[in-house]
Amino acid sequence: MNLAPLSPSAADIQSHLYQSFLQGSTADVALRVHGSWDAVYNLHRVVLIQSGFFRSLFTSGFIESSPRLGNNGGLHEIVVQFDDHNITRAAFEICISRLYGGGPPLHIAPSLIPSTSEPLTPSFPFTKEYPKTPENHHPATPRFLLSLLATAVYLSIPSLASQAMSSILSTIGPHTVLKYLNFALGKHIGNTELFGEPDTAVGLEHVAQPLDVNKVTRESIASLQSTKGKENVTVPLQSNLKGGSQTDFSLSPPGTSYGSASDDESDRHPTDEPLMHYGAISDKIGEACACWLARWGTDLLEYELRENEKEENGTSTPVVSRKRAKTIPSDSSTGHPSSTGYSKERASVPLIWSRGGLNAEWVAAIISADTFFVKGERERYAFARSVVELRRQDGVIEIEEQEWTRLFEQGIFYANMSMEEIINISHDISPTTKRPFVSLSVLQAAHWSQSVLRNHITIGPSFGNLSSPPLTSLTPSPRDKELGVTQTTADILAYISTVNSDVENAKPYFPVPSDSSLRIGDNGSSFNTTQDGTSLSMDQLFTSMHSSHSSLPPSSPTAPRSTSALASKPPTSESDFFGLLPPRYTASSCILSDPSGKSKWSSYPPYRFAVEFWDLDSLKEKSRLHSHTVCYAGSLFNVYVQVVRKKGQVQLGIYLHRQSSIDPIPASSAPSSLVFGRGDRFSGPSPGNVSAFHNRNPSLPSVPSTPSNTSHYSPSIYPSSRSTTPISYSNAPTSPMISPSSGSPSSPSVMNSNTLPATASPVTPPQPYRDPRPAISAYFTISCASATGSSQTRFTSSPDVFSVSQSWGWKSSSLRTEEYMDIKLEGSGTGSSPANKEVSLRATVVLGLV
Prior knowledge:
25% of the residues lie in helices and 17% in strands.
């Protein structure tokens, strides 16, 4: 009888190795670590070489690859100096324990995890009591996750780096966004005592042999570094090891561009300590934070204004003082469970817009961004005014005032406001500085710009434009689709070559885009494995951090579209606020950016507005759910979404629609659980019986006593398709859920309150003039925010022809996800009453004529 040879199981081998690690038995190398802590670890080469760093160290011909005896119990001793103080003892020990197949499980507090039902996390705005961290689990605080990422990247352990990365992106919220953003900019992660986390990994307290720093001085370390031919070898942070983590990881000296997004003095990076940047990984975290701030910024200001009002009235009584919230927006104040007991501390609202939150440069960039969720330019101005005055309450700082000047002059497109709004702004005086927010010359230039554009549309210029480069076409006839208001780069170059004017050289230009689809921020991936299930390498991990980008060729109702994708777009960086703020072009920068001279530009700023759709899971197939209607350049526009089923696949389309001036205005989507207040704003319950939204944010829901049950979708950019609706498609609603009325009441009300999706009575926007052309040419971008706000999907179209009642947009199965809507069975109807939670999709639109 033949017997199969018996051998230890994989679990037995792993258990044996892990016990050897815990006991330090049969070790063949001693790591002498110096950095934010000093200790010796007795380890095993055969296990360590799973790490790219140690594999290079032991197999690439270095002195460490030869077995030698040292002074530490006969073990070969290697001195490792961590100059990156983001690498902590607990994170290092977790990394090493994972190489042995063990270590404590990580516990992320539920209070830090946003969801579709609580998108601003359960800990916002007021924390609850949470139980302590489970026994034998290590608390994965935001600080620890950042340290784990930094350590895993340095040691080249991609599986652990990807886990840390996914955990960071899934815990972006009000109490973590600035910490994560500052990390992306190279700032230090902070000290452990502020976060209630242990210095050592739980359960691994005895694997290290702590060194007495009084005996092991920095001078002795330096002497070890200078020793040659000895057994002891020092490995500094920036060792250029073959096969190791050769990524964009870099250590920047003090004074480099990487810094802090916060203006809180207590939260600044020490000037004598280098800033750490981790290449594409840092940029991906920065992208996610920038997307989150653009998505939730308007909501958070309302909380801050209420807290500020409470302080002024002496009615604010949080357990954590407001002063502490300004200086230490720490996780211990967010209800994060410590490893020792319950968290009973109630968090005050973290500062984002107030001084002590974002610095002035980031404030200006976010408010100026095309994807910042505000209803329109008037609301953008009102929001900027509120933030600036809120910060001025703590004193006027000259460097901030310079940013505010640029914000009000360049970040808001007054040319897209009505004349009445421009006049009102010209009379708006700061109560703090006693000066206008916007200079009269800026408003006059905006009025001139809108008047010239109106003349192009309604009459056509009877003379050459004396203040612009020559136009690419003559005055359009009523049947021309293009206005001829764009110039090529070559036109601009020829013009400024003949005009010696600083004013003309500083004049802004806006690029006419090409077709593209772009995803920035959290891409929804765990970054753990490749498509075939194998583990990622460090190079693959960094590659996966780069933004997905494809170019979609122009399409028309008669021409088929290609699905080929072009080259990837370079990743975002700090210079463009991680994709938040596109570059500002002047004549000279247009020329520098386009050596070919063929790109097209417009001197007229595009029209920007935001839309929101509620209860999409109740939308019937082929029914349209519209946004509010806007007027731009003599035409009416709105956005609608539509559900389409094809071969068992559910797709959600989002379209820009040129509304007929004759047909009734469609009713707009509205939250079913809220009662409309005056004008366009919503009102509802709020904490502390504070009044509902101020009228500066008219399209946003009020702040409830618990986080808003709003959810949004998180699409990917594929598979998607551009499509257009037929010109003959009736603008009338396709379901009783959207029932327009011919009137334009001053006080809209909820329609069909017993049917979802709920809609508001239609409001016809003021239309000072009409574009007489039956067809126009326009470019546009629709940016859709994910459910929790940590990513954006941007669809951009090169100029398309919009006939009256025609739509252009995209439909994709990826746009209909479980994040914000439930997939109903075929034939199921709409709900008869409001659901337990509001389901909404937020998007921003950029629209320009050519």
